[in-house]
């Protein structure tokens, strides 16, 4: 029982951390994947970091550009999904990493991690909608 309470407490703490870090999920994932891809081509560390940083900034810039300029609601929904899905994956992974040893039941672990991923995705969507309110209303 104590381990379950500890898992719930740690889940709450990691959800709060993931809530504040949800905005950074897309650029971090793009940075890591781009760095891995470019560094595997033996391009060098600094060039890989520079290219990965540029790709991360461009990914966020592209999502915000689509949200600010697109009039098609399907395109805006797709841009929101591109921004929210990495945050959901990151929230799931953070909670799974913290609680996978404390909870024996696989079903309870999946439900807990899925809920945390959903909460983190909602946080990313709220942060993105905050950016969207800066767009001029037409």
> What is the total number of structural domains?
1
Structural category is mainly alpha
- How many DSSP H or I helices? 5
Helix share bin: over 70%
Please state the oligomeric state of the protein chains shown.
single chain
Order of helices and strands: HHHHH
Number of strands: 0
Largest sheet: none
- Binned strand content: under 5%
Q: Could you list the spans in which at least 5 consecutive residues all have pLDDT below 50? A: none
Spatial separation of the terminal alpha carbons: 55 Å
Task: Provide mean pLDDT, rounded.
Answer: 85
Q: What is the overall silhouette?
A: flat
Radius of gyration, in angstroms, nearest whole number:
18 Å
Structural features, described:
With 138 residues, the chain is mainly α. The protein has one domain. 83% of the residues lie in helices and 0% in strands. The protein is built from five helices and no strands. It starts with a helix and ends in a 6-residue tail after the last helix.
Map the helices and strands.
Layout: H1 2-21, H2 25-40, H3 45-69, H4 73-99, H5 106-132
Helix pairs in contact: 1-4, 1-5, 2-3, 3-4, 4-5
